[in-house]
Amino acid sequence: MMHRRGVPLVVASAAAGLLLWGAAAPAAATPPEGEVERTDLAEGTATTPIHIVTDGAPTTLTVQSLALRPGGGSGWHSHPGPEYSAITAGTVAVQTAGGCAGAEHGQGAAVFIPAGVVHRVTNAGPDTATVVVTYTLPAGAPARIDAPDVCA
């Protein structure tokens, strides 16, 4: 009789051990990229702090690829939301109202321009400059607001 009572206890202990071992075994991992293919469009490093505030209002996110031919420029303008740019080729000069000297940014740089800041971007280099730009805009607002030349 003692033998019979011991068998169920041993079987129960073995079953519990197997369950615990199975729970501790590593699960099949999700592939690093999941089930999608990703293509990086641009990457840049900003040297200034960036803050984004939408106050809970509906927001439109716009991403554009820009190409500036040698000698080309954007003209003076602003945006109703912040602009984040990654320079993917060439060098661009960014001028902002009040500090009319242009700051040059080359491939791999990121540029942040707060909402409402009047600025222009030019390419003084010999090759086409390309930039991937992202705007966070109030829903329904235009991406660009033209401005007069503030450094004339």
TrEMBL record:
Q: Which UniProt keywords apply?
A: Signal
Q: Which SUPFAM superfamilies match?
A: RmlC-like cupins (SSF51182)
Q: Which residues form the Cupin type-2 domain?
A: 68-134
- Reply yes or no: does the keyword Signal apply: yes
Pfam families for the chain: Cupin_2
Q: Does the keyword Signal apply?
A: yes
Q: Tell me the first and last residues of the signal peptide.
A: 1-29
- Could you tell me what this protein is called? Cupin
